[in-house]
Amino acid sequence: MMLETEEHALATAETLCRSRGAKLTRMRRRLFEILCESRRPLGAYELLARLEPALGHPVQPPTVYRALAFLVAQRLIARIESRNAYIACAHPDRAHHCVFFVCDRCGESREVENPPLQELVARDAHATGFRLLRAVVELQGICAPCLASAAHSDS
Ligand SMILES: [Zn+2]
Ligand SMILES: [Zn+2]
After folding, report:
1. Cα–Cα nearest to 117, from 129, 109, 125
2. Ligand 1 center to residue 81 CA distance, Å?
3. Which ligand is closest in space to the CA of residue 107?
4. Which of 26, 31, 103, 122 has the fewest Cβ atoms surrounding its Cβ within 10 A?
């Protein structure tokens, strides 16, 4: 089921793609929807398993990888390198660094905005003459609900 925020994310994605002259095909759109519905990063094969029933026909892995590359290039989703998986960006309409807290226990990831961190990185990039195209920061640890349930089971 789509939540209001997911519908909003989809509407934002459509507007962004239209304004950039990029085409959000049915496959790309469905892939983005699946990622918006998930609270944890999903790997390409997990996505494939959800995509096929949603589209009603078989999909080849290279097709999924191409669609994922498109969504990454449009900054609608981010790749979580440590998990070899993908997650929807929380605010694709703003230029920002995606900063993710990724839980080792449940695998859920939460994106936060961190403008001071962004400024520091921009300063370093500028000083070294580096042109920054994308930034994804992954922070590994244990999320609050997992910490709480661990505390319960310990007592
Ligand atoms: Zn983001
Ligand atoms: Zn957790």
Report:
1. 125
2. 14
3. 2
4. 26
Least Cα distance to 22 among 67, 62, 64 occurs for 67
- Check: pTM over 0.85? Answer yes or no: yes
Q: What is the distance of C-alpha 116 from the center of its chain?
A: 21
Nearest alpha-carbon partner for 99 in 70, 121, 74: 121
Q: Find residue 101's DSSP bridge partners.
A: 110, 139
Distance 151 CA to ligand 1 centre (A): 31
What the block records as the tokens of 103 is: 């839980």
**Which residues of the chain fall below pLDDT 70?**
1-3, 154-155
Query: From the CA of 149, how far away is ligand 1's center (Å)?
Result: 28
pLDDT of 3:
64
> Tell me: the pLDDT tens digits for 63-83?
999 999 999 999 999 999 999
Q: How many CB atoms lie within 10 A of CB 79?
A: 19
Ligand nearest to the CA of 140: 2
Q: Which of 106, 105, 113 is nearest to 137 (CA)?
A: 113
Q: How far is the CA of 136 from the centre of ligand 2 (A)?
A: 20
Kindly list the protein residues that place their beta carbon closer than 5 angstroms to ligand 1, a single-atom ion.
Answer: 89, 98
Please tell me the distance between residue 147's alpha carbon and the centre of ligand 2 in angstroms: 7
